[in-house]
Every structure is written in structure tokens, then in C-alpha cells.
Write a structure and sequence with these properties.
12 strands; two-stranded antiparallel ribbon
């Protein structure tokens, strides 16, 4: 038997980080970074998938697909282009999109920060400076008050560990620093911001009568393995795993463990309503650069590797699980999607959400437009959308509540 039934109560959806799909000429850190010539193929994030112009078409594609959840990003730069100046027209557009998805029965997991900062915030020293906490929290407060009645779940940050490694430990991300102390200072400050945002979001929802919400932070996890025999590679792979473990304990549990920095702000406690994992899969490590996001590669690992990672996380903190990102490239996407959905559905773990990334092709950070991860293909010249075979497979699985042998034969047997 090759078929499977979808796990009961597990919502399936897609992922659309704002800076990767929206486009637009913004005063953001990644537009600035592109202007300095740091994108490998020269593609500008101002192009991306022009989602702000095509959101109604994209919402229709989600409805037709039959997803029950969507991980949707909000761009801080778009909402607050200048300090203390909020763009209410942009918030109204986000509100219209959220309303459309809600009417379609699609529950949104709203992502408040994913790698991209307003230039004004970066110029103030970003998350490296504790006095900038209030900037981020004011933004969170404004968004929650304006949109919270349409949102059930929030991610305060997406992959803050990748943000810190990429931007402050030679990973090629803005601001382009390479300093271990700065890297873990930023990561510690972001954990402190998350702790405050967790309480703030719950408080706003209660105060405004929106009903309670669920809040978490998605952490990047790679399956780091030594790329070669020898002590240096083993040490680096082990160090990368320990750094993830330290970030997990700081963000979720308010506990500091090396290499995180001392914090007089973090207080031991529980700062998540579910565990959220952005999965990057098998990652061979031969040098320090291999542990940063610059080494991103399509996931070719077996689904059992993802399940082992989820099981280890759940053992550390027995909360519901959300796979907030997993995905791969075109040529192996269909078998990858089928095998991973089957494994997640058959797992006894309490997996409540599963988001494939990405929904559409877009701006893939340092790789620009050259790497295509969307299950909807985008022609960047015309912005024409075209569903791929993976879109059609997921649509069939959702409509049937799983996959039978006939569906398996249609896609995998000649």
C-alpha cells in the first residue's frame, strides 16, 4: 500500500514570507544589500512575485488549491517605513487580504519578521542594541491592534538564528558582519524581544476583545553532519547543533546556555504556545561558512530525518508542533512532497500545522531569482502565475483527504 490518510486535525498550507514575494521599492535592509551588489544573480527584491499587486489572484490560487492554513508575512518596512510613521493604507491592504483568506476558511499564521529590517532600524544598530527593543515592540503592538481580530496565530520572528548567523557571522546577509560575539548578542537580544512580544500579543488580544491567540517563534534547523572525516568537521557540526539547542532554550524557555550571551531580561518560563520549525534538511559541514544560511541547499533528506528532529524538539518541550517551512527544488519536488506528507501524517507526534515553502517563486535571498522553490511558477518578466505538478498533487491530496494507490500510480508509476 502506497497511499495514506492525512493526519486528523493537521492543517496544511503554504508559506509566503513578505520580502520574498511582495516586491516594491522599499527602504529595507535587503533592497540596500542588493544595491551593494550582494545578490548572486543581480535580481532585486523589488521585483520578487509582485504579490502586493497580485494578492487577489494569489488568494484565488490558495482557495482553488484547498489549503486550510497559510503562513503569511508582514513587512515591517512596508508598515513603518519611517520611525513612528505607520502606513495605514498598507495595513488596510493587509487587512483586505486577511479578510479574503478568512472568508475562504484559510487560517493565517502571521509572520511579523523574516530577515528584513527597515533601514532606519538598521541604522540605529538593529537588534544588537537593547535600547531598540521598543521600536520592534511598538511595531508588533500596532500590527496586532490593527489586524488581530483576523489572526489566530503569530510568529514573532522567522528563523532568528539564521538571521543572526547570516548577518553577523560571515553568512553573507546584511549587515555583513563577521563577529561571534555580535552574532550571539543579536540572537540573545531577539530572544528578549520575543519574550516581551509573546506577552504583549496575548495582552492586546484580550484587551481588545479579539479572543486569545497562539504565539511562537520559528527556528531554523539543519541536519548538520560532518562533510568529511576528521576532528575539525565533527567539531563544527557538533557546535552548530549546540548553537541551535541554545537558541531553542532561550526563545522557548527563557534560559541562557552558551554560546548565547548573558541576559538580565530573560526570565525562565514558557514563551510559546506551539513549537515551530523551519526545516532545511541535510547540511554537510566542512567549514564555519557551511553553518550559515549562505550554504542553503534544497532539502534532499529522507522524511525520517525531519521526524527525528521533531521528536527531539518535542522531548525538550512537549507542546504541539508546527512545521512552518519545508521544501525543495523543482526536479524532486513531487516525490519530496508526497513522501514527507505521508511520513508526517503517519507520525504519532502532535503535528498541527505543516507549511510547504514556498507558495510562489520569488526572491530567494542571496540567490535572488535563480532558485525556484514555489509550487506556483512565476514568470518574473510578465508576473504570470502557473501551477506546477506539485500544486496539482497537493490539490488532489487535499481534496481526497490523503492519497490512494491510484493517485500514487498516476504520479510515480509509468
Amino acid at each position: 500500500m502506497n497511499g495514506f490518510s492525512l493526519k486528523e486535525h493537521m492543517l496544511l498550507g503554504l508559506s509566503s514570507p513578505a520580502a520574498q514575494c511582495e516586491g516594491g521599492e522599499l527602504e529595507s535592509s535587503w533592497i540596500y544589500w542588493w544595491g551593494l551588489g550582494n545578490i548572486r544573480d543581480g535580481a532585486s527584491p523589488a521585483v520578487a512575485a509582485q504579490h502586493t499587486q497580485h494578492w487577489q489572484e494569489d488568494a484565488a490560487l490558495l482557495r482553488e488549491l484547498g489549503v486550510t492554513a497559510h503562513r503569511m508575512g508582514i513587512d515591517w518596512t512596508r508598515v513603518e517605513p519611517h520611525e513612528e510613521e505607520f502606513d495605514e493604507a498598507e495595513l488596510a491592504r493587509y487587512r483586505a487580504e486577511l479578510t479574503s483568506l478568512r472568508k475562504a476558511g484559510i487560517r493565517v499564521q502571521l509572520e511579523l519578521h523574516h530577515f528584513n529590517d527597515p533601514v532606519w532600524f538598521a541604522e540605529r544598530g538593529g537588534f544588537e542594541r537593547v535600547e531598540n527593543f521598543s521600536c520592534y515592540l511598538h511595531y508588533v503592538e500596532h500590527v496586532a491592534a490593527a489586524l488581530g481580530d483576523l489572526v489566530d496565530e503569530y510568529l514573532t520572528f522567522a528563523e532568528p538564528n539564521a538571521y543572526a548567523l547570516g548577518g553577523y557571522l560571515g553568512g553573507g546577509f546584511p549587515p555583513g558582519k563577521n563577529n561571534v560575539s555580535s552574532c550571539f548578542r543579536v540572537l540573545t537580544r531577539m530572544a528578549e524581544c520575543h519574550m516581551h512580544a509573546y506577552g504583549l500579543l496575548h495582552s492586546i488580544h484580550r484587551a481588545m476583545g479579539y479572543g486569545d491567540c497562539r504565539v511562537s517563534v520559528s527556528l531554523r534547523l539543519n541536519d548538520f553532519v560532518p562533510a568529511q572525516d576528521g576532528f575539525p568537521a565533527r567539531l563544527l557540526a557538533d557546535g552548530a547543533r549546540r548553537a541551535f539547542d541554545a537558541a531553542f532554550r532561550a526563545f522557548y524557555l527563557g534560559r541562557i546556555r552558551l554560546p548565547m550571551k548573558h541576559s538580565s531580561i530573560l526570565t525562565p518560563g514558557l514563551y510559546a504556545d506551539f513549537l515551530a520549525l523551519d526545516w532545511q534538511g541535510f547540511t554537510p559541514v566542512a567549514s564555519l561558512a557551511d553553518t550559515t544560511p549562505a550554504n542553503d541547499a534544497p532539502d534532499s533528506s529522507a522524511p525520517e530525518t525531519l521526524l527525528a528532529a521533531l521528536e527531539a524538539l518535542h522531548a525538550l518541550c512537549p507542546l504541539p508542533l508546527s512545521v512552518t517551512l519545508h521544501g525543495t527544488e523543482d526536479d524532486i519536488r513531487v516525490p519530496y512532497l508526497f513522501e514527507h506528507l505521508r511520513a508526517l501524517s503517519e507520525s504519532p507526534l502532535p503535528i498541527e500545522r505543516c507549511f510547504y515553502g514556498a507558495f510562489t517563486d520569488g526572491f530567494e535571498w542571496l540567490d535572488g531569482q535563480s532558485e525556484r522553490r514555489g509550487i506556483v511558477h512565476v514568470d518574473f518578466d510578465t508576473q504570470r502565475r502557473e501551477p506546477t505538478d506539485a500544486y496539482e498533487l497537493l490539490q488532489a491530496i487535499l481534496s481526497r483527504g490523503g492519497a490512494d494507490d491510484a493517485l500514487y500510480a498516476e504520479y510515480f508509476e509509468e
